[in-house]
Design brief:
The complex is a heterodimer of chains A (802) and B (168).
Chain A lengths: L5 E6 L11 H10 L3 E7 L5 H12 L5 E6 L2 H14 L7 E5 L1 H5 L6 H20 L6 E5 L3 E5 L3 H12 L3 E5 L14 E2 L4 E2 L1 H4 L2 H7 L17 E4 L2 E9 L2 E8 L14 H5 L3 E3 L8 E3 L1 E2 L11 E2 L11 H5 L12 E7 L1 E4 L3 E3 L16 E3 H7 L21 E8 L14 H15 L4 E6 L9 H11 L2 E4 L4 E5 L4 E8 L4 E7 L1 E6 L1 E3 L3 H8 L26 E3 L9 H19 L3 E5 L3 E3 L9 H5 L5 E5 L5 E5 L9 H5 L5 E3 L4 H11 L10 E6 L2 H11 L8 E6 L7 H9 L4 E6 L10 H18 L7 E5 L5 H18 L6
Parallel strand pairs in A: 1-2, 1-3, 3-4, 6-7, 6-18, 7-10, 18-29, 20-27, 21-22, 21-27, 22-23, 35-36, 35-37, 37-38
Antiparallel strand pairs in A: 5-30, 8-9, 11-12, 12-17, 13-14, 15-16, 19-28, 24-25, 25-26, 31-34, 32-33
Helix pairs in contact in A: 1-5, 2-3, 5-18, 6-15, 12-13, 19-22, 20-21
Chain B lengths: L1 H13 L15 H5 L1 H5 L5 H9 L3 H6 L11 H5 L6 H14 L5 H13 L7 H9 L10 H11 L1 H5 L8
Classes of the chains: A alpha/beta (802), B mainly alpha (168).
Chain lengths: 802, 168
């Protein structure tokens, strides 16, 4: 490696800092540090003339390492790195240290001590820079192809977006027809659109375009680079982002999609009847069937569980196009895709577990999806809400909200759309059959979307009754075949017994049945309720912690149609952005394993939040860890986990951490005991930034060492700090639940606990070490913690090594 | 401050055995509509008791008679969607009331019988005669001395007779 020639750029931040820090002393000090080839002063170095000064110094090859003492690195670092790269130096040979917010501002009432601290901070940056090595970029080829799992609203929207952007798209749907749950909803609130649009993918194009044309046999199915695979399931995923190898199992339809003309002759001769799932089992259909009236694909399918196959084969005889082949076997397809979008949606909870409502026991207790099917003019009752027990029209209907949701016994969360579904059904019934007596029993009506409150108003105007109270029991009176709903009208404080012909349970919405299995296949997480978990609910709502795998729609949480669409478009954009260049370009700020040292303990593959570490065979019976450069996010949690020090980060080597510890503690310059604070680059460092920005004061004996994530910290780092002169050590990381690298903050906490035990064994007070979990807006808490730690350590007296 | 009072009483209840779950309550009314007592009298409504408790209406609950009307059938607790242990909360409220000397007369009678005879209900001559007629064995005497020790050790006697100031 060439000899390090460090250029140090001291910014006075518009003349503010020299009022506190002694810049002459600082400049002279820096000049005296070995390896420093240039010291320059300016008012700001991350833009304008200041930046040009750095560029010129690099271009003339006076320097090959850049240290800038400036303001918040998060603001300045990127600009400086990019400029340095344009000047011909590797962009990773840059270190920015914040002498304003980490030194001058918080210590403005102690200029002498602050100057000494600034010297230590800049020295640490120089020592780190001297040990820096260039870090290359790597390119990973990616396939311009996307797999979308789930053919409901979200899946179809995402598939259409990506296909029209030119990606090769595979849309895999487990059912024989597209449409998902929304297709069964008849109408959508709050505008009462017809759900047929969802049933045929055609609609997607039709809806998104201004004129709504006939939706049958057009639209999605005609986008050439979109492959729709119904009756299919993802069974295996291999490879990695940009290049997944996906195995899809396709159950036979037994009817050739190209030959079938949907003439219906087969259905007319089929002798087998089965309950119709599409109509919530309220009616029967034949073993060879198609969902009426408009679906994609417009092709019949044979229900393998019901069909008698060759014992009957009447459909084969009658089919005019010879489209039916009863000997078809399941097919396995292998797809090569760059990215995967999960859109598996949600389903209705089975309320039969809630004994007091007697669903499944009393036929006239139905779910809201079952009512939706009754309200479909093409449905089992032709659009009339009837009592399943005797088929008579229901004149008195009671809706029960929050059935199995907001219920700690079953599903504690609010399913979010059931209030609107019941309002929709009540107004639909009231419009068609104004004499019907309708009552909605609710705990809270949650109508939070745009125009949703107007919808609630409309229901009240139409005469739908609302009872605030959750029923405790549904009773069946066999003499009159009437249901009695027991409920307290809380507002009257009166117990009511509501008579009903039909009771509709607004059942919870829960994750699709195969969510768990799919999560395992894809290696992504589910949340506590069983829905797919996003990387960050606020800022990365469609990403997962596996690069290249995205989630959207009801698979993430129950959603109405507009929200599912929005979410799907967002996932499509993310997937497109990920694949658009045909390659993934990445700075190799990653972990590397010294395989000779690896002890095959298997800690790191389990700990890595990104599944970036695998074990590969290394000789007879021995394995060694290997880091995927593509998957690694460079957090260093593996480094903190490795018991033998076989892993290091390219951008923060062990020697660099040690050098900074020594430099930061080399000079005290204050009357107080030195305290070293390890902080993560994310929330922890930001909390330190904000305490300085707000000019909150804390003693200058507290020195901050920035690491990517506190998860990298090992017990020996903490001991090293004590050995180098620290009287106290702080670890400042993100909140345990808000760690930017998922587990880092929790791992650091464990490490701190371990170190405390070890300190005790050495006869050192464990109180000298403490972890703090802070965020940006808690700058005041950092200042308080720094003061409190200093006071605590002062009380304990000088550190005594046993 | 009304708000302070609200939290204070709720915290007092959650700190009591049986009272831990009261803050789960979201006032859905399932308890009220399943309660057999609420069906017969307007003087008792479990939802309303929880509401008053959460709003810090200490005196109204502890000095009133409502909490003593619960029949302990546990219907409410079985069906509560928020897993509020309602019947147990009522017990916790009763315990607070008794500790503060708000003991209904009937409970004082029970306690007197328990301490003097080791039973909640006294055994009458008539009852003994009837048992003999039916061929049932005579009721064994209770271990009164041991019971007295337990009751004294737990401070039971001091608590239940607080109002009267008696100890035996």
């Amino acid at each position: 490696m060439e000899e390090a020639k460090v250029g140090v750029f001291l910014s006075d931040c518009g003349g503010q800092i020299p009022k506190i820090l002694d810049f002459e002393a600082l400049t002279n000090f820096v000049k005296s540090v070995p390896g420093v080839a240039l010291v320059a002063r300016g008012s700001e170095f991350w833009r304008g003339q200041g930046l040009q000064t750095i560029v010129d110094a690099v271009k003339t090859k006076k320097i090959n390492r850049v240290v800038v003492a400036e303001t918040v690195p998060k603001i300045s670092e990127v600009a400086i790195s990019k400029a340095v790269e344009r000047a011909g130096l590797n962009s990773h040979l840059v270190e920015v240290v914040d002498i304003k917010d980490h030194c001058a501002w918080p210590h403005r009432d102690m200029p002498k001590e602050a100057t000494e601290k600034a010297k230590a901070m800049i020295l640490a940056a120089i020592e780190k820079a001297k040990l820096m090595e260039p870090i290359d970029k790597a390119e990973f080829p990616s396939v311009k192809s996307v797999l979308v799992i789930g053919g409901g609203v979200a899946g179809m929207q995402a598939a259409e977006d990506l296909a029209e952007m030119g990606f090769q798209v595979y849309l895999v749907e487990k059912e024989p027809f597209l449409g998902g749950l929304a297709a069964k909803a008849v109408r959508f609130f709050p505008t009462d659109d017809c759900a047929i649009c969802i049933q045929s993918p055609a609609s997607l194009t039709a809806v998104t375009q201004t004129s709504r044309k006939c939706v049958y046999r057009s639209g999605l199915s005609e986008i050439p680079n979109l492959n729709i695979l119904t009756n299919a399931k993802v069974v295996k995923v291999e490879g990695g982002p940009g290049n997944f190898k996906v195995t899809v199992e396709r159950r036979p339809r037994y009817v050739d999609e190209k030959k079938c003309v949907a003439c219906d002759l087969c259905t007319s001769v089929c002798p087998v009847e089965s309950p119709d799932e599409y109509n919530a089992r309220l009616s029967k259909r034949k073993a060879i069937y198609i969902n009426k009236p408009l679906v994609y694909p417009p092709v019949y399918v044979i229900d393998a569980k019901a069909c008698k196959f060759h014992a009957c084969a009447k459909c084969v005889e009658v089919c005019p196009t010879k489209a039916i082949n009863l000997d078809k076997k399941p097919e396995h397809l292998t797809l090569n895709v760059g990215s995967i979008i999960v859109a598996t949606g949600f389903r209705e909870y089975d309320p039969s577990v809630i004994k007091e409502y007697h669903y499944g026991e009393y036929p006239d207790v139905v779910t809201h999806l079952e009512l939706a099917r009754m309200l479909d003019a093409f449905g089992p009752t032709g659009g009339v809400p009837v009592r399943p027990s005797d088929g008579k029209p229901a004149k008195r209907v009671v809706f029960v909200q929050c059935v199995g949701s907001r219920d700690r016994r079953w599903n504690p969360y609010c399913s979010s759309i059931c209030c609107m579904i019941s309002l929709k059904h009540a107004t639909m019934i009231k419009e068609a059959f104004p004499d019907t007596d309708l009552t909605i029993c609710y705990i809270d009506i949650r109508a939070t979307g745009r125009e949703h409150e107007y919808y609630y108003e409309k229901a009240r105007e139409m005469g739908v009754k609302f009872v605030k109270g959750r029923p405790s029991e549904i009773i069946h009176d066999p003499a009159t075949n009437t249901l009695i709903v027991e409920v307290e009208d809380e507002l009257l404080r009166r117990l009511l017994e509501l008579e009903a012909d039909l009771v509709v349970l607004a059942t919870a919405m829960v994750p699709s049945e195969d969510a768990k299995e799919l999560a395992q296949i894809l290696g992504i997480e589910l949340d506590q309720d069983g829905f797919f978990k996003e990387y960050n609910a606020k800022l990365r709502p469609t990403e997962t912690k596996r690069r290249g795998i995205f989630i959207c729609g009801g698979s993430v949480f129950p959603k109405d149609v507009p929200t599912a669409s929005l979410h799907a478009h967002s996932a499509a954009v993310k997937a497109a952005k990920f694949l658009m260049n045909g390659k993934i370009v990445k700075d190799l700020r990653v972990a590397v394993v010294n395989q000779d040292y690896c002890g095959n303990c298997q800690f790191c593959p389990v700990t890595c939040p990104y599944g970036a570490i695998t074990l590969e065979p290394k000789g007879e019976g021995h394995f060694a860890a290997k880091v995927s450069e593509l998957l690694c996010e460079g957090c260093g949690v593996c480094v903190g986990t490795c018991p033998v020090g076989a892993i290091e980060l390219r951008h923060l080597k062990p020697s660099q951490i040690s050098a900074q510890i020594r430099a930061l503690l080399a000079v005290n310059g204050t009357s107080k005991p030195l305290v070293l604070a390890f902080s993560c680059s994310e929330c922890g460092h930001a909390a330190v930034d904000s305490s300085g920005m707000a000019m909150m004061s804390y003693p200058a004996n507290v020195r901050v060492l920035r690491v990517p994530c506190t998860g990298i910290i090992q017990v020996h780092h903490i001991l090293e700090a004590f050995k180098a002169g620290a009287q106290g050590v702080m670890v400042v990381g993100c909140k345990p639940d808000g760690c930017h690298y998922e587990v880092g903050s929790q791992k650091a906490k464990q490490k701190v606990e371990m170190a405390k035990m070890l300190l005790q064994a050495y006869g050192i007070e464990p109180e000298r070490l403490e972890m703090f979990n802070l965020v940006f807006v808690e700058g005041d808490k950092f200042a308080e913690a720094a003061k409190a730690m200093t006071e605590r350590v002062e009380k304990l007296g000088p550190l005594q090594f046993a | 401050m009304a708000e302070e009072k609200l939290l204070d009483f709720a915290r007092e209840i959650t700190g009591r055995l049986g009272g831990e779950t009261i803050t789960n309550c979201y006032q859905c009314g399932t308890c009220a509509s399943t309660c057999p007592v609420a069906r017969t009298t307007e003087r008792y409504n479990p939802r309303q008791i929880l509401r008053l408790a959460l709003l810090g209406q200490r005196d109204e609950i502890l000095k009133g008679d409502a909490i003593w009307l619960c029949a302990s059938c546990y219907n409410c607790q079985e069906r509560c969607p928020q897993k509020v242990e309602i019947a147990d909360v009522i017990y916790a409220l009763r315990n607070i009331a008794i500790q503060e000397g708000n003991t209904p007369a009937i409970y004082t009678d029970f306690a007197t019988a328990l301490i003097s005879e080791g039973r909640l209900a006294p055994i009458s001559k008539f009852l003994e005669k009837k048992r003999a007629e039916y061929g049932l064995p005579a009721i064994k005497p209770t271990g009164l001395e041991a019971l007295k020790k337990i009751l004294a050790a737990t401070g039971f006697d001091k608590i239940v007779f607080k109002k009267e100031g008696a100890t035996k």
